[in-house]
Amino acid sequence: MKSFTGKSFLTLLDFSPEEIGSLLDLAANLKQKKKDGVPHRLCEGKNVALIFEKTSTRTRCAFEVAAADLGMHPVYLDPKSSQIGKKESIADTARVLGRMFDGIEYRGFGQEIVESLAKYSGVPVWNGLTNEYHPTQVLADLMTIREHFGSVAGKKLVYLGDARYNMGNSLMIGCAKMGMRFTACAPKEYQPSEALKKTCLEIAEKTGAELSFSDDPLSAVRGADVLYTDVWVSMGEPDAVWKDRIQALSPFQITKQLMDAAGPQCRFMHCLPSFHDLNTEIGQKIYEQYGLTAMEVTDEVFEGPRSIVFDEAENRMHTIKAVMAATLVKE
């Protein structure tokens, strides 16, 4: 396997298709070891800092369990446990943490923050989510698609909803890198930026990927192997945007009708959490205000036999483990 030692994992734009494939192979190997009860403490005695300016269930648990399995000690820093960007600059924080820890995970706001951590810390930095990118999620998505379909090349993934931010961006990049067929299906004002489209189209010319952009869900999903969506309002955004998002994105809700239009081969994926029922405070609040029993996906699809969201969620841990091991273990 190509050496990743000392390299940060900030966006899939930084990695070749061969490198991404290598990380997926390592993740599959480590997953099998986990299932078989085979110890794989490849990073024994190392320490890692987990900086969370945005809270998370899957990302935190995935990093903590993966670190423990690899023999490392993770230290969790929530917004109240760190002075990053408040009393201490990003650069100063990075230089301090880099002298204490062997690696740093960051989940928070602008991509420039995780880039600065990588620039100044001197140790591998892993992007657990920024406003612009979510590469560890997409690595898990690719692993899940490969498990269910045997390969990723040529598979068609349609992302429905707000495609302007981290998930739409990172899925487009991942599909372009891996020779897949990607469609962003969203209102015109909710499509990825022209600059990133251009970059991904240039990648696609080399890999054989096909990228398209649509605002017609029924047409876009035909022949899709995967329909993918995310919540309509991201963490940190004000509640005031719900009304506009619901109005704009309701036609892009993933329903059984759309799944059937895609075909029997189609699977449903979601990075979670999902508002598919009324069993959350936000779901109940939206129902009381707008009368919706589900938002980005119906409960029928989410709980249906073609939903693979929990395989996908589990694979967060296996792929994150692969990233940490690959960047920390000396060849």
How would you describe what is shown here?
The protein is of the alpha/beta class and about 325 residues long. The protein contains 13 helices and nine strands. The strands form two sheets. Strands 7-6-5-8-9 form a five-stranded parallel β-sheet. α1 (about 15-35) crosses α5 (about 135-150), α2 (about 60-70) packs across α13 and α6 (about 165-175) runs parallel beside α7 (about 195-205). The longest helix is centred in the first third of the chain and has 20 residues, at about 15-35. The chain is globular.
List keywords for this structure.
331 residues; alpha/beta; four-stranded parallel beta sheet
Largest sheet: 5 strands, parallel
Q: How large is the radius of gyration?
A: 19 Å
Q: What structural category characterises the helix and strand content? A: alpha/beta
Quick check: average pLDDT?
Answer: 96
Low-confidence stretches: none
Number of strands: 9
**Helical percent range?**
40-55%
Order of strands across the main sheet: 7-6-5-8-9
SSE order in H/E notation?
A: HEHEHEHEHEHEHEHEHHEHHH
Q: What separation lies between the terminal Cα atoms?
A: 9 Å
Tertiary shape: globular
Percent strand: 5-15%
Q: Compute the number of helices.
A: 13
